[in-house]
Amino acid sequence: MTNEPKPNTHAAAHSGHDEAAPEQERISGSKALAGVAIVLLVAAAFVGYGLWSRSRANTVLAERTTDLAAPSVIAVVPTQGAPTDSFVLPATSPLLPIRPSMHAPPGI
Question: What is the number of domains present in the chain?
Answer without folding.
Answer: 1
